[in-house]
Amino acid sequence: MEVLFIVLAIVVIALFAIAGLVAAPVRRRRARIRTTTAPRLATPPPEVSSPPLPAEAVVPTSGLDVPDPTAGRLIRLRGRLARSHNALGRSLLTVLSRDHLDEEAWQEIEDTLLTADMGVNAAGELVSALKDRVRVLGVRTPAQLRTLLRDELLAQVGTSTDRGLVTAAHDGHPAIILVVGVNGTGKTTTCGKLARVLVADGRTVLLGAADTFRAAAADQLQTWGDRVGAHTVRGPEGGDPASVAFDAVQRGNVQGVDTVVIDTAGRLHTKTGLMDQLGKVKRVVEKQFPVDETLLVLDATTGQNGVIQARVFTEVVKVTGIVLTKLDGTAKGGIVVSVQQALGIPVKLIGLGEGPDDLAPFDAEAFVDALLGEPTAISPPPAGTR
Ligand SMILES: Nc1nc2c(ncn2[C@@H]2O[C@H](COP(=O)(O)OP(=O)(O)OP(=O)(O)O)[C@@H](O)[C@H]2O)c(=O)[nH]1
Ligand SMILES: [Mg+2]
What we know:
Blueprint lengths: L1 H35 L36 H4 L1 H19 L6 H13 L4 H18 L4 H16 L17 E6 L6 H14 L4 E6 L4 H14 L2 E4 L6 H15 L3 E6 L7 H14 L7 E7 L5 H13 L3 E5 L9 H9 L3 E5 L7 E3 L2 H9 L14
Parallel strand pairs: 1-4, 1-5, 2-3, 2-4, 5-6, 6-7
Antiparallel strand pairs: 7-8
Helix pairs in contact: 3-4, 3-13, 4-5, 5-6, 6-13, 7-8, 9-10, 11-12
């Protein structure tokens, strides 16, 4: 009996030992899977079977930035716009308030508009509209002139233009935004700032680093993404940008994010090979879903050349909106009008600085008010000054 008891005890101990040996690797494997699953997004994606992300793709969720809300951003950033642009409004109002407006005065007004890059057609139209209204008005008070100029500038900038961006998932897949432009205009920065805008508005975002020319470009984008918890899909340096863009859209769709924002390499509009490559990026993405927005990033300081760039880019990838960057560093805000009028492409976003939240949805009224400056701007200089 005693012997039987001892044998039974040995059998039980042996069984426990075998069970332990089998369970250990399973536990280890489970632990490994937990550390490589997709990052948690601000809003949990719908139940989808997501392929695991590589370990380096996991975005930390603690210590994320909380971007400024987007509502009224341009109003908040208006001061920055006014600093570089209200000289335009001031000089126009100063000439308009002369007692006698002769041809020379009107030429001066037109020249001022051309210097601000408004473009020949828009400047001509504005001058003739102003001429008509000044004639009807007769005697002019500074306040009347300001209203008149505001109305006519608004008419040129366009108040009824649709400047909305498609950023919400639709038809069961994410919205797709492709960001294009020549070198150094601010594409990557815009993708990063845009991700912040979207996150601030409650969207979930995935970034695609389709600038594969330099590893640093993907690092730059990923840094922006990491700050707001947006995952960045990237490929090998020198890899096919179209394939990275395709992967980003596929991954974004599987994860159920709202918006996929794809950064592309800077390319001169005159380089046919590079422009063809861009066309391919869009075509390959569209094997999955249509691109909702193709945003052309233009550096406002490059002036009328922006119109030429826009013409070529839109022939290749059908641009749906302009992002005008570096408006904080130039008085050439008239490009807003010339690009729209020459090509019918609305300015949708403007960049007003290097800060992470210095990107604002374009608002015609806030823009024109910034050009005109404060109403007091045309009051006579205090005595003793010249
Ligand atoms: N002042 C100012 N600087 C800006 C603005 N937007 C971008 N920049 C700066 O412009 C420089 C170029 O920005 P990137 O985003 O790297 O430009 P990119 O178009 O991605 O450049 P490539 O990828 O090399 O073609 C950076 O120093 C940005 O900080 C803006 O609105 N205002
Ligand atoms: Mg870049």
